[in-house]
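Predict the 3D structure for this chain.
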Amino acid sequence: MKAILLSLRLLIAPLVLGLALTFAHAAETAAPKAKHVDAAGAAKLLETNKEVVVLDVRTEDEFKDGHIAKAVNIDFLDESFAEKISKLDKSKTYLVHCAAGGRSTKSLSKFSAKGFTNIYHLDGGLSAWEAAGKPVTK
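Done. Predicted structure below.
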């Protein structure tokens, strides 16, 4: 009996693993991933594509202290964040950032779930932007 159970486990384990990998791959490829850029890459993106919308997901107070020129502020911590981003034009290109990258990284799954397909993430957030000597406006 023990030999039969061991044989069944050896047969079933690869099947379960295969299914798990298949579902993981399907979930990974179903939603487009954000493209990650550093401050120099973000600046180049903004120079070459004037249609890019800079989306700052920090709080309103943080935004008022300084932000990238022409940025739009939608606070990731606001309860209505998902509702607010669902009203944005999904055909546009967005450069998303926060202060250091934590909140904006968490926001990426919400953009994906809402059907956004052209999202760039500023790795390191506004801190990296400023450290690279890029301009900030108030």
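The CA atoms of residues 99 and 120 lie 15 Å apart.
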